[in-house]
Amino acid sequence: MITSETIAPRVAFGETLVELADRYPDLLLLDGDLANSTRADILNNARPDRFLEMGIAEQNLVGVAAGLATLGFVPWVSSFAAFIASRDLDQVRVVVAQPRLNVKLAGGYSGILTGSTGKTHQCVEDIAIFRAMPNMTVIAPADGVEVRAAMTALMEHDGPAYLRLTRDASPVITPRDRSFEIGRAYLLREGSDVTLISTGVQSVRTLEAADLLAAEGISAHVLHVPTLKPLDVDAIVAAAARTGAVVTAEDHSIIGGLGGAVAETLGEHRPTPLRRVGLRDVFGESAPNAPLLEKYGLTPRHVADAARDLLAGSRA
């Protein structure tokens, strides 16, 4: 259910860091000179002894985090997704993922809704990059409430992880009393005609698409997949089996992201008619949120259109 409450995931990130720092004395945050944007500055203001400013030096940022992990600390690395998934990627691969060190990578400003920063600061390939990296856990929460729950779960998870975070406030769809289980997908709405599978904040727009379809008499089954790796294969296969038609939706490239993961899963376990909603092998650009969602086909209407087209084709 979509509530009237809105939370900026980046604010939830900063506030949760403070909560976790009080519970875990081994938590440290390493910042890449973006704390006022990612809101890691909330931790710096409240617990400055847990905050390490590393400057604009992403490779060194990850190298220091790896060293701290070998000493028993749980370092969180905070920067923009565009930088974590590119500028420091060799270090992530060699000194974090290969030795399976307990480093948490927080990629803020993910997707195309990044406050008009433009294509250089947007990242629509990060899920694909980290999904393909051995030993890496990949999580994309739907809202601020799920950010908090996912971060709590990650502190108890031993191993490298990538947490995908968005910039702007968005409606809350996650029950506050629901714990987060890494590797589990969550059913948001039961339906019988078409399955909509989404991840991250796109799950809010996907629920809105289900409302549009319901007004036309189309019953949508909505599955939210916050953990892209390890993937909840059983839940995806079961959701596909329920309706026999699947639409995926994500603020990410359809190549290698959720759409790719679902296609791989269904191809192996239950071939099912599929449509993928997402960026179609393009970069984004600088613009306000609404025009970007419209141009790149991420609005609730676009998700609903994909469902209608899929159903029309399967019934022809």
Helix and strand arrangement:
Elements: E1 6-7, H1 9-23, E2 27-31, H2 35-38, H3 41-46, E3 51-53, H4 58-70, E4 74-80, H5 81-84, H6 89-97, E5 104-108, H7 126-131, E6 137-139, H8 144-156, E7 161-164, E8 170-171, E9 186-189, E10 194-198, H9 202-214, E11 220-224, E12 227-229, H10 233-243, E13 246-253, H11 258-269, E14 274-279, H12 289-295, H13 300-315
Parallel strand pairs: 2-3, 2-4, 4-5, 5-7, 6-7, 10-11, 10-13, 13-14
Antiparallel strand pairs: 1-8, 6-12, 9-11
Q: How far do the termini sit from each other? A: 33 Å
CATH class of the largest domain: Alpha Beta
CATH superfamily of the largest domain: Thiamin diphosphate (ThDP)-binding fold, Pyr/PP domains
Low-confidence stretches: none
In which range does the helix fraction lie? Answer: 40-55%
What is the count of helical runs? 13
Main-sheet strand order equals 3-2-4-5-7-6-12
| Rounded mean pLDDT score | 96
Classify the fold: give the CATH topology of the largest domain.
Rossmann fold
CATH architecture of the largest domain: 3-Layer(aba) Sandwich
Along the chain, the helix and strand elements come as EHEHHEHEHHEHEHEEEEHEEHEHEHH
What overall form do the CA principal axes indicate? globular
- Biggest β-sheet, characterized? 7 strands, mixed
Strand content: 15-25%
Task: Please identify the structural class as seen in this structure.
Answer: alpha/beta
Number of separate structural domains: 2
Radius of gyration: 19 Å
Number of E-state strands:
14
